[in-house]
From TrEMBL:
It holds the Pfam family N6_Mtase. It comes from Dyadobacter jejuensis. This is Type I restriction enzyme M protein. InterPro entries: DNA_methylase_A-5 (IPR003356), SAM-dependent_MTases_sf (IPR029063), Type-I_RE_MTase_Subunit (IPR052916). Residues 92-187 form the DNA methylase adenine-specific domain. The lineage of its organism: Bacteria, Pseudomonadati, Bacteroidota, Cytophagia, Cytophagales. Belongs to the N(4)/N(6)-methyltransferase family. It comes from the Bacteria. GO terms for molecular function: DNA binding; N-methyltransferase activity.
Length: 260
């Protein structure tokens, strides 16, 4: 099993989370495994009706260390509260931890690296246009941890955001990131090319009804997933019959040609 001694050099912006991971289970667990369970724990906490089955499974796995997952979630919230300011409107702490762990282990199940935040902001600014500002929805079909959607929401809030990713961990990070940033929309685990669907979360749906702005998620069935809604096919245009041209009558009268 992997040890966590190398987690000493974690980025300062996410030290609060990584320090708890470093001491988790007295070095008995792989850090990537702990992170995946932490993401699942966060999803369970944000689900409107919770997830008792998940909680029981994690309690059985970690025993007395189970409470550290709650402390990690608390550390994440504190980091977000500190990092989000009037000048900095979004921050991807989860993606930062993910990338850090992925860079430290070749055997890690965390195998992606995401678009740098500054580049996300640049792409958002290049994408904006008067036509885009009038649109009600924004979609990212390979969303990773949701950074591009967070960037767009920071610059032009109030849109319905839809993110899809083939990786379940990334999808869950997107859902958590969208929820804590106050976004609304859906995060879907699916293959955007083949349209193979796995699961989906509705993000902060009750905010539209005037409920308190508490981050929350609702599981969505495939039939109600926006990304799986198949647009009605445009009916084929029927062949328009051409009007019949009346026959012209030629009448000869006293050497004069008449068409009428």
């Amino acid at each position: 099993k992997a040890t966590m001694g190398y987690l000493e050099d974690a980025p300062s912006s996410v030290k609060g989370i990584v320090c708890l991971m470093r001491d988790f289970g007295q070095y008995r667990y792989d850090p990537a495994e702990v992170f995946v369970d932490f993401i699942d724990f966060g999803i369970g906490c944000f689900l409107y009706e919770g997830d008792k089955e998940l909680a029981d499974r994690l309690k059985k796995k970690y025993g007395k260390d189970y409470d550290l997952l709650g402390k990690m979630l608390h550390a994440w919230v504190l980091i977000m509260n500190e990092r989000i300011t009037e000048e900095v409107r979004w921050f991807d702490a989860l993606g930062t931890v993910y990338e850090y762990l992925a860079s430290r282990s070749k055997k890690s199940c965390l195998g992606q690296f995401f678009t740098p935040p500054d580049l996300c902001d640049l792409m958002t600014q290049l994408t904006l246009s008067p036509e885009m500002e009038e649109k009600e929805t924004v979609n990212d079909c390979a969303c990773g941890s949701g950074r591009t959607l967070l960037s767009f929401n920071a610059l032009l809030p109030g849109k319905m955001l839809y993110g899809e990713d083939l990786d379940p961990i990334c999808t869950k990070m997107t859902a958590l990131n969208m929820a804590i940033h106050g976004c609304q929309g859906q995060a879907t685990c699916m293959d955007s090319i083949s349209q193979e669907w796995r699961f989906c979360y509705e993000v902060n749906p009750y905010h539209r009804l005037g409920f308190p702005a508490i981050p929350h998620l609702l599981p969505v069935q495939e039939a109600n997933c926006r990304a799986k809604l198949v647009p009605k096919p445009i009916p084929e245009a029927k062949e328009i019959p051409q009007p019949k041209t009346p026959k012209m009558t030629v009448k000869v009268d006293s050497g004069q040609l008449s068409l009428f």
